[in-house]
Amino acid sequence: MIIDSHCHYNLSPLLENWSKYWVDAQVQNVKGSLVVGTSVTTSATAVELATKEAGFLASVGVHPDTITADQSIETVIEALEKLAVDPHVGAIGECGLDYFRLPNSPQADEIKVLQHEALLHQMKLAKKLSLPLIIHLRDTNNDAYWDFFSILKLVEPLNKPFILHCVSGPAKFINLCLDRGAYLGAAGNCTYKNADLIRSLLRMSPKNRVLVETDAPYLPPQPYRGKICQPAMIHLTSDFLEQELQLTKQQLLENTLTVFPQFGNQV
Questions:
Q1: DSSP code of residue 137
Q2: Do 211 and 218 touch, CB atoms closer than 8 A?
Q3: What's the pLDDT at 102?
Q4: What is the domain count for the chain?
Q5: Separation of alpha carbons 18 and 40, rounded Å
Q6: Which domain range does residue 150 map to?
Q7: What is the pLDDT of residues 23-68, one digit of tens each?
Q8: DSSP 3-state assignment of 169?
Q9: How many CB atoms sit inside 10 A of residue 144's CB?
Q10: What are the C-alpha distances in Å from 140 to residues 137, 164, 192, 196, 197?
Q11: What are 88-101's pLDDT values in tens digits?
């Protein structure tokens, strides 16, 4: 049995035919999925889908890539907080820091400040509501990782775990996060031939701190690299983790249920 700890049934092209993609995933023994929001709008859609489908749990958050210089972070957080109290919500995120494209933006410094502000408020919201955090970090160097760590120290201790979605970053940073109760999200990109760094991070993690995820429609596993990732493809990533990293499906399931016990009714 598999629980997909990070999927975007609420985004195109999955949204338009989400029920078929969900049926296909169930054929591959997927019993549940965390449907992750990236904006107020897609977070509301995640909650709507989780209301319709018992196998879904919603996460509400604002992805750093969606933050613009003309945005009111306060207004965004107020909208998220209204969504987050819904009983179908099991996490806050996907939130974090993404500096990957900022060098090409004339408003890079301003957007970076807004990303920091949005992340801090979402971390505080997760702590207030006792919900896990889904963290997205991406950078051409390591600045985003250490900036996240500085913000984390402003709100810790958190009362629920945080998940480093599609894990990446320097080993020292990962170890410090593991010391603080983090879980590492293993998506389809861990199967790529050039993903030695990702695999090394997963290998150094305790086996009870890794979750399997698709990030569908993004990051399909190796046989389908470059194509749309479908939720059913998670079995390929799960098989890879078992064969290459000795992370059994049972271990991955137990790890996910530890963070998201709401899925216990589905297994």
A1: E
A2: no
A3: 86
A4: 1
A5: 19
A6: 2-266
A7: 999 999 999 999 999 999 999 999 999 999 999 999 999 999 999 8
A8: coil
A9: 24
A10: 11, 17, 19, 17, 14
A11: 999 999 999 999 98
Nearest to 4 by CA among 219, 204, 227: 219
pLDDT at 177: 98
Domain CATH number, residue 76 = 3.20.20.140
Structure tokens at 179: 């010391």
Alpha helices in 67-181 (DSSP H): 73-84, 108-129, 143-155, 171-179
Instruction: Give residue 69's pLDDT.
Output: 84
Q: Using 70 as the pLDDT threshold, list the residues of the chain that sit under it.
A: none
pTM for this structure?
Answer: 0.96
Angle, nearest 10°, between helix axes 249-259 and 234-245?
A: 110
Q: Express the helix, strand and coil content of the chain in percent, nearest 5 each.
A: 50, 15, 30
**What is the sign, positive or negative, of the torsion defined by CA atoms of 250, 213, 62, 10?**
negative
Owner of token pair 């993404």: 98
CA distance 168 to 172: 11
**Of 22, 59, 64, the residue nearest 44 (C-alpha):** 59
